[in-house]
Design goal:
44 residues; mainly alpha; 25% helix; globular
Length: 44
């Protein structure tokens, strides 16, 4: 299964809310510029 990258812009400080929602949905939140440099994450 191919992983897709989707960028979403939020105005305000909603990071924790988005992380909580992603956890409930079984998704992973990557913070651009920080988490994107992790080994195993492929950038195209």
């Amino acid at each position: 299964m191919m992983a897709l990258l989707h960028r979403v812009l939020f105005y305000g400080d909603h990071v924790e809310n988005v992380k909580d929602l992603a956890h409930l949905l079984g998704l992973r939140v990557l913070m651009e510029g920080r988490d994107m440099a992790e080994p195993g994450v492929v950038q195209i």
